[in-house]
Specification:
39% of the residues lie in helices and 18% in strands. By secondary structure, it is an alpha+beta fold.
Amino acid sequence: MIGVWVLLGAVVLAVVVAAVKRALDGRFRTAGPEASSRDGDGDGSQLEVLTPAEIGGELGARLTFVQFSSSFCSPCRATRTLLGDVVRTREGVEHVEVDAESNLELVRRLNILRTPTVLVVDPAGVVVGRASGLPRREQIEAVLASVGG
């Protein structure tokens, strides 16, 4: 009988963990000075800034989605397709994909802990938001609406 209760507890725990993960996956958070600091002293005095050379692509006139991916990541492929589809219909919005495995220094500097991670970058290269996991179309549309488009 104890085995049945242990099994039931494990199933309930798995369902709760899956529900929490689903709720948080792909949700965009606002990045600010407290998120990271270029000078590494942790005082939050500077915003994180990316250059076209660092990400291997041009910044959009309105915003850029910078996606960190890895070759073995299935959600990365779905994110690439979704962002590409959304960006294709928006003027001044770009999508740049960065191979996390080939850019470990940048991954460490930006505190990328999983793939896909999508950074929202303004025209000046400032990271203004981020999402880990596969975002939903509505979440991407909300980010675009927040910048007037």
